[in-house]
Amino acid sequence: MNPAAAVRQKAIDEIREADQNFSIMSEKQGMAKAFTTYASDDVIKLNDGTAPTIGFDSLRAQMSRLPANGPVLTWQVLKADAATSGDLGYTFGQWMLTKKDDAGKRSAQYGVYVTVWKRQRNGQWRFVVDGGNSTPEPK
């Protein structure tokens, strides 16, 4: 493998791992913790049916309004890719949002997402753009 391809492949592997860890944190510690941990300072979060959330402070405020024991969001990476420079990439996948009603009955919503990742000065990957939309339940 040539050096440029090796840099790109390493970035793809790191982005895929960051995305998976992001989902695990969302499941175990909640959406608010996960989104504020993995977001960049200049984040843009696309919101279904409303204006985007722009900037980390706005994202933190949005996430702080989520109930502590609210819905659980998890997702699975289906594709990851990166620039040959190794500093920018994306993930695409499927998400599932589960919640309980007042009677304790569970329900789920499904969708797809795309997340753009950027390597930060400290070498960590943070998302700069995230968005998705609802879909029927996957088959």
From TrEMBL:
Domain DUF4440: 30-126
Residue ranges of coiled coil: none
Organism superkingdom: Bacteria
Family matches, as InterPro entries: DUF4440, NTF2-like_dom_sf
Pfam family, one: DUF4440
Protein's UniProt name: DUF4440 domain-containing protein
